[in-house]
Amino acid sequence: MNTLQKRGGLDTLDAFSEEFDSDYWAERFYSERYVRDDDEYDDFEPAYRFGTALREETDDFDADEPDLKKRWETVKGDSTLTWKRAKDAVRAAWEWSEDDDDESDSRDPSSLE
């Protein structure tokens, strides 16, 4: 059963989660295992935004991946990343957001390092 519940307004990056922390992802960008030497953060930021927003929509990334792949083409904006390249970044942000489910509303991203 597909657990993804597409909600109105989440088809553009502007509508994605207010929890997204650009500074956190920019600071750790080059230490992520999926980042190549010639990659640029700006190309990955939409993937991080998407993953953060997905925490509100799905509890099972793997089961929903076929739908997420389709949606990536709609939400990626100017990013040149294919789903294959973006997927790990989307998942990283989704997992990072999951860590916050058990914490208070005031999250400190540095505490997750």
Fraction of residues in helix:
40-55%
Instruction: Look at the helices and sheets and give the structural class.
Output: mainly alpha
How many whole angstroms does the radius of gyration measure?
Answer: 13 Å
Indicate the mean pLDDT. 79
What is the end-to-end distance?
Answer: 34 Å
> Unreliable stretches, pLDDT < 50, 5 or more residues?
1-10, 104-113
Largest sheet: none
Percent of residues in β-strands: under 5%
Based on Cα principal axes, name the global outline: globular
Quaternary assembly: single chain
Task: Give the topology string: H per helix, E per strand.
Answer: HHHH
- The total count of helices amounts to 4
How many strand elements?
0
Task: Characterize the structure shown.
There is one protein chain. With 113 residues, the protein is mainly α. Mean pLDDT is 79; it is low at 1-10 and 104-113. Helix 2 (41-54) packs across helix 4 (83-99). Helices cover 47% and strands 0% of the residues. The protein has four helices and no strands. The longest helix has 17 residues, at 83-99. The chain has helices at 22-28, 41-54, 61-75, 83-99. It has a domain at 40-100.
